[in-house]
Amino acid sequence: MINYISEIKQILAKYSSIKREMSNLEDHVRSLKLRQNQIELELSQTREIERALIDKIKVETGEEPNFYKILEEISADA
Asked: Cα angle vertex 58, ends 55, 59, to 5°?
């Protein structure tokens, strides 16, 4: 058994390295999930603002705006 101490130490060092890398990946995954949640919240809030604007325009004009058409017109003007 003593003859294999150096090889055992190499294996343990490799396991330790792998564990550190896995921990780093897990940290990155948590960070990415947090950012994903933030972006999804921003998207949800933007959709709420859009819906409120559509409702406001419908009340004022009696018609539902076509956002796709409006975007096309804005893009053509740019």
From this structure: 90
Instruction: Count Cα atoms within 13 angstroms, Cβ side, for 23.
Output: 6
Domain count, the chain: 1
Q: How far is CA 60 from the centre of its chain?
A: 36
* φ, ψ (nearest 5 deg) of residue 47: -65, -40
Supply the pTM of this predicted model. 0.68
Exposure string of 11-37, with b = 16+ CB inside 10 Å and e = fewer, is eeeeeeeeeeeeeeeeeeeeeeeeeee
The domain in which residue 13 lies consists of 2-77
pLDDT in tens, 12-22: 999 999 999 99
Using 50, 70 and 90 to split pLDDT, how confident is the model at 73? confident
Six token digits for residue 20: 């550190």
Question: Hey, what amino acid is at 45?
Answer: Q
